[in-house]
């Protein structure tokens, strides 16, 4: 019997890496359902190769896809649409594993649906956890979902925690002897830029990450360090720790993917070449191991590992995220929504790179914070924060 996998966001960078890992293990996994938002040509290629049972696309793309399926004689693949379709495949009875790899807030409801259906959920879509934090973690406990981090840092932390960590976390008594989480950051493509230089960087430069090949949004987030800010919040929820136990360490080589320090003076790290196939394979098979094509780390080639503290003057996004986590409630939702709007505006060249954190700061100061009591309040706040961020972008000339 093979395990049935649903890949939300199959045409993206994580989606494609997931397929790459699955292709090597057809005896263990089958691709049951996939979703895509655009790039139907790519989706068609994937469908020809993997023959999923169900595909989800936006409603306005469904007709075109149906015609393509007819031409290719793929008439047995069911086409569902929009959020309802995404939720349907995420919670589908026949699905064992859900890869949550949609980018941004659009992934929240399907990811939560997978968690509530008690699936093994491989979490790449960090924005969904940033927005819904306690609700998502509580749902995982209540419905017996296995929420496993795919984000390389969180996967590294997970690998560096004690083997009984998950049980301890579930019983609410984690006596793990952990003293600090060291969350590593590459520093992005502008690590050594001056503030003046940062003002003029282009979307193309921002999307060129030195170590990782990723989607546009996370590439810009890596360049502003907002990605590390979102990851700080992600770590607090995943590992039930408060933000002051998380230290961000800039490590430009991206060889150590994060570390856990213990009260006895031990520091455990997970290392490897920067390739998302490793954390994806780990989360797919945990507690077993799956073979991948990622070459073993050659420390003689690496030779040097460097570490430095993040510069929060040139990269204020990290502090904004820390403040939002500290404030709690709906502040992380506001941070995330305003950041998504600001990154989109930067990619369209409506605002400059250094204005991204300014827009986020403005939204944090101008959206009323409250308890994140339920998903409706979170979604409503996401919408308000987007409106405020968009209006501010117009006001500052974007
Ligand atoms: P990407 O832009 O390459 O792919 C995004 C996927 O989501 C695509 O399949 C796209 O069709 C789909 N999508 C986009 N907007 C959508 C919408 N409104 N509704 C439904 N589907 C939509 O992004 P990525 O780099 O693969 O990142 C995906 C997620 O994984 C992000 O949350 C990112 O932060 C996280 N992540 C990525 C990496 C990486 O190396 N790429 C590493 C860690 C975490
Ligand atoms: Mg990461």
From TrEMBL:
Positions annotated to bind NADPH: 11-14, 125, 127, 215
Domain 1-deoxy-D-xylulose 5-phosphate reductoisomerase N-terminal: residue ranges: 5-133
Keywords from the named record: Isoprene biosynthesis, Magnesium, Manganese, Metal-binding, NADP, Oxidoreductase
The reaction(s) this protein catalyses: 2-C-methyl-D-erythritol 4-phosphate + NADP(+) = 1-deoxy-D-xylulose 5-phosphate + NADPH + H(+)
Pfam families, per the entry: DXP_redisom_C (PF08436), DXP_reductoisom (PF02670), DXPR_C (PF13288)
Entries under PANTHER family matching the protein: 1-DEOXY-D-XYLULOSE 5-PHOSPHATE REDUCTOISOMERASE, 1-DEOXY-D-XYLULOSE 5-PHOSPHATE REDUCTOISOMERASE, CHLOROPLASTIC
Similarity section: Belongs to the DXR family.
Protein's name in the database: 1-deoxy-D-xylulose 5-phosphate reductoisomerase
């Amino acid at each position: 019997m093979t395990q049935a996998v649903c890949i939300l966001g199959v045409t993206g960078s994580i989606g494609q890496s997931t397929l790459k890992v699955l292709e090597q293990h057809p005896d263990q996994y089958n691709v049951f359902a996939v979703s895509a938002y655009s790039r139907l040509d790519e989706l068609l290629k994937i469908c020809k190769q993997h023959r999923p049972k169900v595909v989800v696309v936006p409603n306005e793309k469904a007709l075109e896809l149906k015609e393509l399926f007819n031409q290719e004689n793929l008439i047995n693949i069911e086409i569902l649409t929009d959020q309802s379709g995404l939720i349907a495949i995420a919670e589908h009875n026949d699905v064992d594993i859900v890869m949550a790899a949609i980018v941004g807030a659009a992934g929240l409801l399907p990811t939560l649906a997978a968690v509530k259906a008690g699936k093994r959920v491989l979490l790449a879509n960090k924005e969904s956890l940033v927005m819904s934090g306690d609700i998502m973690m509580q749902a995982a406990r209540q419905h017996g979902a296995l929420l496993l981090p795919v984000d390389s840092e969180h996967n590294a932390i997970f690998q560096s925690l004690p083997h009984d960590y998950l049980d301890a976390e579930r019983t609410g008594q984690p006596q793990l002897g952990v003293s600090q989480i060291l969350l590593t950051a590459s520093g992005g493509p502008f690590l050594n830029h001056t503030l003046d230089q940062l003002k003029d960087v282009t979307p193309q430069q921002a999307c060129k990450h030195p170590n990782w090949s990723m989607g546009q949004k996370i590439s810009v987030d890596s360049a502003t360090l907002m990605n590390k800010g979102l990851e700080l919040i992600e770590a607090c929820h995943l590992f039930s720790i408060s933000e002051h136990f998380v230290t961000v360490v800039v490590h430009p080589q991206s060889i150590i993917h994060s570390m856990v320090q213990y009260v006895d003076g031990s520091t455990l790290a997970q290392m490897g070449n920067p390739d998302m196939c490793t954390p994806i394979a780990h989360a797919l098979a945990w507690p077993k191991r799956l073979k991948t094509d990622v070459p073993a780390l050659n420390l003689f080639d690496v030779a040097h590992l460097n570490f430095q503290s993040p510069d929060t003057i040139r990269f204020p996004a990290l502090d904004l995220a820390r403040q939002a986590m500290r404030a709690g409630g709906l502040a992380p939702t506001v941070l995330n929504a305003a950041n998504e709007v600001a990154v989109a505006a930067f990619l369209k060249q409506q605002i400059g790179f250094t204005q991204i954190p300014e827009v986020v700061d403005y939204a944090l100061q101008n959206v009323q914070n409250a308890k994140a009591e339920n998903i409706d309040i979170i979604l409503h706040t996401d919408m308000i924060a987007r409106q405020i961020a968009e209006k501010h972008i117009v006001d500052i000339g974007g």
